[in-house]
Structures are given as structure tokens and as C-alpha cells.
Fold:
Amino acid sequence: MRWSDTDEVTLVFPGADARLRHLEHPQHPEHQPGAAPRPSGPGAAPGGRSSGGSARGTAAGARAPGTVAGAATGGPGPDEPAGPGTSGIGARLAAERERQGLTRVTVAGRAAMAPEYLAYLEEGPADPGLAALARLAAALGTSVEALRGGGTDLPPGQGRALLRPRLRELGTDECRARLSTHGVGRVAVTTPDGPAVVPVNYEVIDDRIAFRSAPGSVPAAAAGSEVAFEVDHLDETASRGWSVLVVGPARHVTEPGAVRRLTEAAHTRPWAGGEREMWVSIQPRRITGRRIDPPGE
Structure:
């Protein structure tokens, strides 16, 4: 590739999903009618490219000065429209990788790409091509559609069931491991209008399930009663998943020291936003779980 501003030559090594777009540029002065031809000789390469010129190697997907968006990054070509939510692909990649506890080196190795390229995809406004997305989806055990943000307005579990699924019970230790340190779960409460199940951002601190809410809200009704709390995850691509159910008494945490400790240990603010400073803690009395696996696992 020859840069029009410096006339330097760059060797580009594009990834398997890269696409090149040819742009029309004004002719170089030396190519104008009547211009003197470029000298040729032992020190010149064919086509006038000097063998001693600078050759700047660029990694696959890295954008060098003068490259076109989508050319070296593997963005959609003229005949391939971008999928839904492409601007958030990097965030979804990073979130799924971190959820599974995988490093960039591990995922990049599975997807046959450089860790630096994966870092570029996760941190920049990149739109990788279908080939790279397919490899990343396979490496993470998800789908291209999920990485592109498709189906976000549909309930999970619309795929086909496994041919011979295997349902097995989870032990207490495995249930606690799947609860992890924090996440989004559902709390079942009884309200004056009847039973209700609502999602909450939760934390696991000292073996207790804790979440923040606002006084008078539906989740706040959990305080002072026996409640059920559920967490699950579905793998849409493999038609498998798991669920964990926690049952126990819930109470409103009011001690200043305990409230401060919960607030400082929290991994995130409630996604719903607003003033939600009422902490509710659930003491597990029973923890059960189930998992759907393919036959033979």
C-alpha cells in the first residue's frame, strides 16, 4: 500500500475477515500527463518503489493513518449491512468473556486471532466482519446474533430443545459458585396486590444475598418475610442452562456499619437508577439448583 501523503510503502497483513475498499484519489504529480518519469535503476524496485523505503507493518485490524473505516478493521463491506447493535459489540464481547472468567489471551487463542486485536475490538468502536464474529462466538460458546445485540427485545429460550437433554441437580457448593459475587436475580415477594417476581441487582456478602431498593417499592416488600430468590443463565446457542433457587428470611439492614460495609463492597449501582439506598439481606436456609446438559456430559 502506498500512502498518498508521504509516498511511503506499507506492508499490510489483513486478517481473514478484512476487506479492502478502493478509493479514487487524484493522480500523483508524477503520473500527470507530461510529468517526468520516476528514475529507475539498481536502487529502485519495480513500479518505482524504492527497496530502501520504509515498510511499516501493521497488525491485523489496526488502523494506520489514512486507512478507511472498515478496511483494515474488517467492517461491513458495501454489500453487507452492519448487524443490529454493532456499536456495542466490544462491550458485549468483554462482558461475556469476563462473565466466563476468561482472559483475552485464552479467547484470542480459541478464535485464532492476536490478543491485541481482541483488545482493539473490546475497547474501540470496531465492527468486525462475519468471519471474526463467528470465531469469537464459537470461542465464547454464544452466537453471532447475540454478540451483535440481536434478540434483545425477545425473551430467552426461543431456540430448539436438545434431542436428549439431561437434567441434573446441583450441589450446594456448585449453587454457591454459580451465584458468584454479584449479578441480576429475581426475588419473589408477596404484596398487597398479590405475589410478584421482580429482577434486582444483587451482591453475595458473607453468604447472604443483598440488594438495594427504594422504600415502598415491590422489592422492598421482601423485608420481614420469607422469600424466594432465583438466578439463572441460558446458553441460547447450545440450548442448555442452569438455575439456582435460594429460600430464606429477608430483613431490612439498618445498622450504619452494616449499611456502609454493603455499600462499599457493592460491585455496581442498581441498573434501574434512582435513589435506592434501602438494603435488604436474605439469609439462605435452602439452596437448590438444576442444570440442563447434553447427553453424555
Observations:
- The longest strand covers residues 240-253.
- DSSP finds seven helices and eight strands in the chain.
